[in-house]
Amino acid sequence: MTRRAKIVATLGPSSNTLEKIEELIQAGINVARINMSHGTHAGHAKVIQTIRQASKNTGYEVAILCDLQGPKIRVDKLKTNIEIKPDQEWVIGPSHELKNYPQYKDCFIPTVYKDLVHDAHVGARILFDDGLMEAIATEKDGEVLKIKIIIGGTLKSNKGINLPDCDVSAPSFTEKDREDLIFGLKNDVDYIALSFVRRAEDILEVKYILHKLKKNIPIISKIEKPEAVANIKEIVEVTDCIMIARGDMGVEVGNHLVPGIQKDIIELCNNEGVPVITATQMLESMTTNSRPTRAEANDVANAIWDGTDAVMLSGETASGDYPLEAVVMMSDIILEAEKKPKERPFLRHMELKNITSSLQIAASLIAEKTHARWVLSVTESGNSCLKMSRFRSSKRILGVTNSLSVMRKMALYWGITPFYFKEKENDILTIQDQMINVLKEKDLVENGNKIVITHGDGKYFKQGTSNSLRVEIIKDIPRKDLDNISRNKFQEVKIDNDSRILLDTSICASCQNCIRVCPHKIWIPTDDGHKNTRINVDTANACTLDMECVESCPTGAIEIISTKV
Q1: Domain limits at 454?
Q2: Positive or negative, the Cα torsion across 224, 226, 229, 234?
Q3: Segment 397-449, tens digit of pLDDT
Q4: Are the CB atoms for 170 and 95 separated by under 8 Å?
Q5: What pLDDT shows up at residue 353?
Q6: What does R_g of the chain's alpha carbons equal in angstroms?
Q7: What is the CATH number of the domain that holds 510?
Q8: Which of 68, 183, 300, 489 is disulfide-compatible with 333, CB 3.0–4.6 A?
Q9: pLDDT value at position 435?
Q10: 238 lies in a domain?
Q11: 222 given a catalytic annotation
Q12: What is the pLDDT of residues 499-510, one digit of tens each?
């Protein structure tokens, strides 16, 4: 994978078949989101099973995110749509209260939230349908609330209600959420998203439940309430991931404040090493159009430049007309934006909270300075890869693990390509060598490539040996036929007795071992400013054919073909 930032895609009627999910995976989604606000457990279980089968069929494991509904306040079922107009007076209250207030039967808006009247106060704004309609509370009449319409429109069943000026008493984790959480755990989902988080205690409550059940599943805290924005630092300290849910956030705090809040939260998460997802209406117009607006493309790119770990598609893939095209477009925008990477924080000022973080940053720097082909982060829990992701390495990173669940969790980590590997021998040094052999078999490396290998967690790593970093130069890959390789990659010099010295410059590791072992100055550095090696044609005939340079070459770039018997 050349794309570093990850894509979360919501599945729904437009995208929940096996064929469509396979297409989305091949197009580049990394995490499949299941929205528990809609559908049934039976339907969701079928989709989860289909996702796993699609992953198996395509060979790419994607993570499954179970997104809990939270205390969503909605309009209850209506017999017909209601037209509300400016300056009209209506009454809103729990559905069961209508029988107690027959005088309001022609102007009553029922809600599923039984504590709405208790939480609201005179002068508070009541917003409907993502803020498209607005009213002001004018008077409490027992168990119902009188409101005056400021901005009208057509009100439909199940549309959302927001109370931006009120302290909502409903807990972030509802009884429905509890049932949905247990469902998710039984179906082995990889992430749990908690909606309408307001404070750190909301996350800790769910973590306590997971701890009691002995389940280690990361929690994604959705930031969409003003209280969450105010308490963001304490929330980041206890959560595993942040989602900037800009839809309800825009309604609650005002759309004009969302861009600044987004930037601040991404910066905070980057500094703390907590993954962050930017979500909602990123390519909204692609719900009905095959191409996004220029503003939407800029929105996605700016989120990438801000430093987001992932971007999310909602209705675009769940119910839109162009789910596949939306994923392809999202991926293309990310790839283009990543050509101008965000500048990393100056290392001297980075707080390295533990040895694992220091090791992963060191591995990243060594890989960049030695022009390594890959960084192999061998991990059992995924924690070391999460630390490396924070550093935003420019080198490709393989998160090597023998656990499918860890592999799926790493699907969300910026810059990490999860790689499942089942070891034959339970020894860390042997595992590293086995892994290199797998890379050779899959043609992911060539002679001369440098590989940086690190490990920092897991059952393999006993106390005192858990911090390891190794640089390996790939060699011993069978040479291709000389006639099939471009001649400009070779330097060939004939010497006495029809012998020849060959140097394959395409795989030379520039280690200069040959220069150090040869006393005849047959090998000399190039004069192009790099430390590459070339054959000195003026001294080549001094070669004694002792093969020391061949034996010292780690990549097999040198060959001496002798006709001597």
Answers
A1: 347-473
A2: negative
A3: 999 888 999 999 999 999 999 998 877 666 666 777 788 888 888 888 877 78
A4: no
A5: 67
A6: 30
A7: 3.30.70.20
A8: 300
A9: 83
A10: yes
A11: yes
A12: 889 888 877 877
Cα separation, 479 vs 456, in Å, equals: 34
61 and 188 part of one domain: yes
Q: 6, 33, 72, 198: which is the annotated catalytic residue? A: 33
The CATH number of whichever domain residue 119 belongs to comes to 2.40.33.10
Element (H, E) at 473: strand 468-473
- Told to judge if 33 belongs to the known catalytic residues of this protein, a careful annotator would answer yes
**pLDDT band at residue 530 using 50, 70 and 90 as cut-offs:** low
- Which of 35, 60, 59 lies closest to 48, judged by CA? 35
The structural domain count of the chain equals 4
pLDDT value at residue 427? 60
- Name the active-site residue from 222, 246, 373, 408: 222
Is there a single domain that holds both residue 155 and residue 192? no
d(CA 291, CA 286): 6
- pTM flag (> 0.85): no
Q: Which two tokens stand for residue 199?
A: 């404070």
pLDDT bin (cut points 50, 70, 90) of residue 83 is: very high
Q: Which of 450, 473, 496 represents a domain boundary (last residue)? A: 473
- In the three-class reduction of DSSP (H, G, I as helix; E, B as strand; rest coil), residue 470 is classed as strand
* CA 558 vs CA 324, 503, 507, 562: distances in Å: 49, 5, 10, 13
CA pair distance 360, 339, nearest whole angstrom: 23
* Secondary structure element (H or E) that encloses residue 361, with its range: helix 355-369
Which of residues 357 and 89 earns the better pLDDT score?
Answer: 89
Residues 33 and 117 in one domain: no
Residue 342 counted as domain residue: no
User: What digits encode the pLDDT tens for the residues 438-489?
Assistant: 888 888 887 778 899 987 655 544 443 446 788 888 876 665 544 444 445 6
CATH number where 418 lies:
3.40.1380.20
487 is known as an active-site residue: no
* DSSP-assigned letter for residue 254: -
CA–CA separation, 183 and 470 (whole Å): 43
Domain-terminating residue out of 288, 311, 337: 337
Q: Looking at residue 299, which CATH number applies to its domain?
A: 3.20.20.60
Q: In this structure, are 375 and 438 located in the same domain?
A: yes
Give the pLDDT confidence score for residue 486 in this predicted structure.
47
- DSSP-based three-state secondary structure for 374: strand
| Within-domain flag for 75 | no
Inside any domain, residue 146:
yes
| DSSP element (H, E) containing 110 | strand 108-111
Which among 20, 74, 470, 534 is annotated as catalytic? 74
